[in-house]
Amino acid sequence: MNDKKNRVSLGHFPTPLHDLPRLSRALGGPRLLIKRDDLTGLAVGGNKVRKLEFLIADALAQQADTVITAGAVQSNHARQTAAAAARCGLRCILVLSPMAPAAVTGNLLLDRLFGAHVRWTGDRDSYELMQEVAAEERAAGRKPYLIPVGGSNAIGASGYYWAMDEAVRQSLESGLRIDHMVVASGSGGTQAGLIVGAHALHVQTRILGVSVSRTAADLYESILALAQLTASHLNLRLTIDPSSVLVEDRYLGKGYGVLGEAEREAIHLLARYEGVLLDPVYTGRAMAGLIDLIRRGEFSREETILFWHTGGTPALYAYAHELLPASS
Ligand SMILES: Cc1ncc(COP(=O)(O)O)c(C=O)c1O
Predict the structure, then answer these.
(1) Is any ligand 1 atom within 6 A of the Cβ of residue 126?
(2) Quick one: average pLDDT of 43-54?
(3) What is the CATH number of domain 48-150?
(4) Would the pTM of this model clear 0.85, i.e. be above it?
């Protein structure tokens, strides 16, 4: 099995893996490590770069000249897709929801800088609008390539199979035994890829996805199905153990993208104890979940936990007013 030839190089790998000693001490908890996929290199980094290395390779193999994808107004996936397309000389059309905000900031600003064309959904379904945009492109004589929301199909998720391979190598080189991994889960492709990697490499690490938007039951089904598809895509003969798909949906707060006290605390703790920036939508929420689980005593002090920093920091600027009290 070697999927590496179906890859274009977009990021800088391996990403660093390091300790969070001051945070770990402050929480009186287990050893905490952070895997810095916020430093994947392209366009301020983030997890989608790993997926896009395979998705863009597929687009190029199909001789596409335009990539189309969808996301929310502050989508990190959209921003990284726009940058990857620019880097590879492809046009990029982003179907963003719901409508143009008053201020062009954060990821949306970067989308524009990378030259992406933006179509707003209004109250339309983004999948439908993507199909419509693709039809328009074909009618104009172009060859569009559609990337699903979050880059989460088997091709994209295979990027996180390789990420698991990378993390396991790093842990072996440093003599670390990682008991748990914690990752923010949205469309589920990142977690699905990690699960496939864990199966293929026979590592016992438990992989917990902290949902940012969906119920555990819904996300569990998608991740299990996608992990199995990804394993087949990679020609791995393995069956995904359903009990390896662990999803936590206790930290949804007031819903997707709504910054609450828990995310605010997590962002402040990482910034002030470790000089690490989390994002308001994904890693802030996943870290808030991890902190709560540590405080509840769900991990022993002897265990080692790896937190996947999946990026997203450009969105911090779009949340400036909610991150800081008015007086500061
Ligand atoms: C910063 C960040 N972290 C995590 C995720 C979740 O990844 P996935 O959609 O593969 O579950 C996303 C998805 O957009 C993201 O932007």
Answers:
(1) no
(2) 97
(3) 3.40.50.1100
(4) yes
